[in-house]
Amino acid sequence: MVIYLDHAATTSVRECARDAWWQVSQTVGNASSVHGAGREARRVLEEARESVAADLGCQPIELIFTSGGTESINLALKGMWWARDAAASEILLPDGEHHATMDTAAWLAAHEGATVRSVPLSAAGAIDTHAFARALPGSALATAMVANNEVGTLNDIPRLAHAAATAGVPLHVDAVGAAGILPLDFRALRGDAPGGTGLAAMSVSGHKVGAPVGTGALVVSRHSTPTPLLHGGGHQRGLRSGTQDVAGAAAFAAALREATVQREAEYAAQVTLRDKILRAVASSMPEVEVMGDREKRLPGNANLYFPGAAGETLLFLLDMAGIAVSTGSACQAGVTEPSHVVLAMGRDEGVARSVLRISVGRSTSEDDVDALIAALPSAYERAKASGALSAGRS
Ligand code: PLP
User: Fold this and answer.
1) pTM for the full model?
2) In the structure, how many helices (H) and strands (E) does the chain have?
């Protein structure tokens, strides 16, 4: 049996989400149809929307169901760009964002005349809030992630949102890594930002909270009207046309509800297991360094730098031992590039190629962690001996 310690990439589907999906999928009806079957589908869909909206602190009208984080981020950034004040051409993009964000901004630069302005990260992987605030005035839009998906460091989103509101710039927040784990209150983060300024949109993804892959949402402030990517039947405020996935919405709502209700208990359990890994690594391999902020980090994330060993060799050796971990974001797995996050933290390529992300989740047991702790020292020795990494660069 695989010991799965890659919950930041995706986590198992919650039973409540599976049940919700199964139950709704037994029924037939298009939520836009006017007959009884359609009205029933609509009722289930709107109940799911109300539930997700309540858990994210927004109004149901502000909740746009999507297929996941990547689509939400694309809709937010491209849509906000096309709906911007035409005089502004800069997109404020912190270093170390997820590729869904980076590549969307790069596409806007390559095809739509946007200028991308970067904001540095601290050595701990946090967005430099002062540099962000200084660069805001005159920007067309800005984006920032709540929690870095590789190193787990948390950003000061209330301050960034406040700075965006003060500068009169719309802000998109990527909350994919944080939803269901940290409290998220869209309304409170927006504060009394006027019109389309300040926090304008927030992306979340179902498969990170225990809903099926292919579910997710973009919260779009009722004061904002991004240009849609999909045109058609005008569903969901005209922002995302297409027949709606009622079963997926119900499953997402169920998963997020359970994650919200159990948040404190799941958080505490993950911290306990993650810290057990960190303590064991510190005592058996003292040269291994914890990357990211020691305090302000996701509860399940342990991102470790193994001097002299290639992260992908370690990943492979652990995989052979039946333990699944990651070298970075899952979307990058298979591509042997150094971690762009670690590089943005000011470390060199040797370090950026020698990191491993271990992420525990709600189904992780103490036995799973003990198996990792037992396997890691010999895997590290073998990875160092394999010499896949040129020595002395870290
Ligand atoms: N943003 C962050 C921070 C992520 O970790 C991910 C996925 O790993 C995404 C966006 C993309 O989300 P999805 O996999 O739902 O498309």
Assistant:
1) 0.96
2) 13, 12
